[in-house]
What we know:
heterotetramer; A: mainly alpha; 3 helical TM bundles of succinate and fumarate reductases; globular; D: mainly alpha; 4 helices; 0% strand; elongated; binds flavin-adenine dinucleotide; binds protoporphyrin IX containing FE; binds iron/sulfur cluster; binds FE3-S4 cluster; Succinate dehydrogenase / fumarate reductase cytochrome b subunit (chain D); metal-binding (chain D)
Amino acid sequence: MIRARTFIDAKQQSHSNAELNWWIFMRISGLILVFLVLGHIYMTFIQVSESDATFTAVVGKLANPAWKFYDWLILALALMHGTNGARYSIEDYIRTRPNRAWVKGVFYTVVALVFAFGTIGLFSI
Amino acid sequence: MQHRYDVLVIGAGGAGLMAALYAAKGNVSVACISKLYPTRSHTGAAQGGIGAALGNVAEDHWEWHMFDTVKGGDYLTDQDAAEVFAKDIIDAVYELEHMGLPFSRTPEGRIAQRKFGGHTREFGKAAVERSCYAKDRTGHMILQTLYQQNVKEGTKFFNEFHVTDLLIEDGRCRGVVAYELSTGEIHTFHAKAVILAAGGYGRIFKITSNALTLTGDLMSIYYRKGLPLEDMEFYQFHPTGLAKLGILVTEGIRGEGGILRNDSGERFMERYAPTIKDLAPRDIVSRSIISEIREGRGVGRDKDAVNIDLTHLPREVIEGKLAEITDLARTYLGMDPVKDLVPVQPTAHYAMGGIPTDLNGLCLSDGNGGSIEGLYAAGEQACVSLHGANRLGTNSLGDLVVFGRRAGIYAAQYARQVEFPDLPDDPQSGTKDMFDGLRNGSGKENPALIRKEMQESMMNNVGIFRNGPDMERQVEILKELKSRYQNVNVGDPSLRYNSELIEVMELGFMLDCAEAMTASALNRTESRGAHDRADYHTRDDINWLKHTMAYKDLDRPGNVLIGYKDVALKGFTRAFEPKARVY
Amino acid sequence: MTQTQHELTGIPAAAQQGLAMMHIKVKILRFDPEKDRKAHWETYTMDAQAGDRVLDVINEVKWYHDQSLTFRRSCMHGICGSDAMLINGRNRLACKTLVRDVVKDGGTITVEPIRGLKVEKDLLVDMEPFFDSYKAIMPYFINESPAPAAERIQSEEEAERMAQSSNCILCACCTTSCPIFWVNGSYLGPASIVQAHRFIFDSRDQATQQRLNIMNQNTGVWRCRTAYNCTEACPRDIPITQLIEEVKRAVMYQQS
Amino acid sequence: MYKGREGQWAFLLHRLSGIAILAYLLIHVFSIGSFIFGERFYMAIHETYDWPIFRIGLVFITAGVVYHAFNGLRIIVMDFTGAGVAYQRQMWYAVMALTVISGLYAAWTLLPRLLGGY
Ligand SMILES: Cc1cc2nc3c(=O)[nH]c(=O)nc-3n(C[C@H](O)[C@H](O)[C@H](O)COP(=O)(O)OP(=O)(O)OC[C@H]3O[C@@H](n4cnc5c(N)ncnc54)[C@H](O)[C@@H]3O)c2cc1C
Ligand code: HEM
Ligand code: SF4
Ligand code: F3S
Ligand code: FES
């Protein structure tokens, strides 16, 4: 169906909805994140003034399971959203297949580690 | 490098693309060589429409269309060609629609049609809606659609290859030679049949609607072999080009109701063509405009234009059906046709003459039925002669599809029957000699100046109004320009993408076309259609109801030999007696 | 980058509408593959009329000063799509850009080749990749059902649906102004999507499904980040981004 | 630099802000999460945030988040409504206004911290 030889990449993906699904996900997660992230900033910046990020303050707040869930949702959604966004950039700027493969590999590993670390942190309190 | 195809098509405008499509349907290998990317061809500039008696808007019949074509051509039209054309074009337009061409539509969902100059009902009674259109970009849509279909069929294209020579020996065409712009390499194409469709040569004039690339290459190559060019004196000046620029303002603008006005706002066409007024054929409107200007009723700083008035039309028509031309006026003149009068003047537009062919597109080698085996031509560059002494608007696009198709079909048929002919011994020698000649002159002359002088002098001396002394002077001017051309300076020594070498070569081709045109025009001592002489102001059917065949005199350079060819005064089923041409 | 200056004198500018004369500089990015390793700027000083096209000015340089200057051009009035160039920082057709619209008296016009395609010589670039992606979207009408004797019926509104997309002249102004295309040529580019739109929204065409599949890829519509450069560059005033968004929605509705 | 208009800059800023936020988020998760290693370690990390560069950075991140969030909404409006494309320019100016305001607000609330210590 696709004639031009420069579009081998395209051909391989022509029967998958992956890009469409990610596209929709970016928008839905974005919509949710607006509330979560702006809420988060509002609470940390404006409600809790100044010396907020102290150890006790953080631990105290996270003792509440509702906040645990709230923060974890931000963490999960933002990481997925952000990682997919970064994938867009990687696919745009890194043009050769091998380079793209290893950059993505390293990047996804870092994100996965941070996600695991954050999750463990949240639920270990 | 050498290539081999059963059928080669030269040119990728409407005619070439149509020929390539139909040749490919004939089960032969086809390649298309074009000096431009196909979608850059000048067919894309055609605006108004393609005429066919579909009768979607008002009753219409092919006989009426045939009559208008013959009368429009001032009876120099070959009536057999006109009959084939008027019948075939109906199918051809449906076929374009089936290829997906996005025509404008009537409220019933059929192809929309509008009035156009010279197209009438009941043999001249009143204007009729015959021009099928896609807004005012019909040519663009035809070009795109035909190119798309060629992509679909997988036609092999050689883009940015300039054909420099035709390989003809013993009355048989054997292929072509082409120069590849990107490498500077010369290629030989070996073929059983060749179809020429390389377009017009309007660039020999200063003010023209034609592209910079319309330089009559293949006509000149044909002519340089001592083969004839037919009816070169008939060159159409379109009445309405944007003042000074020559960019075309489609006739559709008058079809939609636009009115020509002189400096006092008078609708002057009422005086020249009382019946159909602004919708008279182009030669008549052009001459009327020039008369107004000469008599001091022009507009503009130099009083060398007249106005076209659309201000009484609804804005939707101007911005919808005439979007293209509205955009052009806004871009180039800073004028808005919705409220401003737009200044226009006649612009060199269309070559009625060219390489003589029969009804199947086969190229003729003289006026007595001789032909070149395996060589076909179609489109503006060919002369079947459908347009006679003056082409009607919308008949050129029709010519491309009808005769492009026929050339494709017959070339393929021929190619299926024959073996590959032998190539000449050194096929590239002609091309190499030409390039060596260009590069080895003394290099004193700037080609741009030669070109400019040719364009200005042709405009003045062989333009809309002609007379003997001016044209005699032009013969001398062309001789002088040609001798200067011997010492032309090709200022770019490079091999790859040498656009200068191409421009200089094209200038040489144009000088030949100008030479043939001037000699043919000087020879024809009458006024007919687009050819209007002050010193022979009437049509002379007794002596001049015949086609001119101009041959280059190979023994005496600069000299042109003139022969003649009979006009087909009968079609297959209908015939129209020559009558005075009044509208 | 090296800079060279030239003075063009005594040459009549292409005559136009009798507007005021202007003294301008034209700065052109030159590159000759047989001589240069890198592109360099050359500046030409000349008189031009306000209503001249930039293409007239470039022709003037070629015809009367440096014949080796290479670029594509043909129709001179914005219909053939040959002469897309980067003029004063934006993609435009040189023949559809008037001098007075890009420069003031005494000012400079800069002319560079369009980006994202390989420069072959001066302002001329390799168009093959552009046409390859055009061909990748099946840019031809497909309707396998037997054709009627006359035309296929289509309403005025349905025909109007193609008015914008079918206006495209394949000049590449859009694709080569797209920031995504600059960095990655595997994006089919706005021009191809406009062409796909032409057929997807043709009521007579039967291959909508396949075309939407082609668009539904990493290299298709999903690569567009709505940067609008394409829309702003289009000499045919096609609202390209809007058409791309329509295709995105069409893909989405078709898959859901 | 290509002289693109609003859309080009909207895209560029969206991409830059997105990547910046992601980078921030990764660091943020690490530093907040580091309390599992104990208070000392946690505070050690957070003290480095007192460096002016981090504090100014915080202002930009806040503005960046606001920009990204509202421009994200702009993109969603363009993607899902027919008319969004026609108003993209106006919407972008609104986004920019919100971004500048929230950036200034953040700078103002953070001013004491910027000027020195807790
Ligand atoms: C502004 C304008 C408006 C018009 N409007 C109408 C209209 O409304 N209705 C109508 O019926 N007619 C109209 N015409 C006339 C009609 O469009 C042309 O006569 C017709 O398009 C010519 O088509 P063609 O295929 O013969 O040549 P073109 O379309 O000019 O194509 C010529 C082809 O030949 C190639 N070529 C040329 N030289 C060489 C070479 N040496 N080597 C290789 N390839 C070569 C070129 O690359 C090109 O592909 C209009 C013409 C103009 C200029
Ligand atoms: C706050 C609410 C957010 C909204 C409304 C939002 C919205 C969006 C949208 C719609 C896109 C798609 C852009 C496009 O396709 O052109 C996007 C891309 C992106 N987002 Fe977000 N986002 C939000 C938060 C975040 C967060 C928290 C991060 C970081 C972790 C992030 C990182 C990214 C990145 C890196 C991209 C890719 C940019 C690009 O390639 O153009 N976003 N965002
Ligand atoms: S969409 Fe516009 S800019 Fe793009 S190729 Fe077509 S005409 Fe040129
Ligand atoms: S510039 Fe490029 S990102 Fe999309 S809106 Fe146009 S294709
Ligand atoms: S020369 Fe044809 S578009 Fe500019």
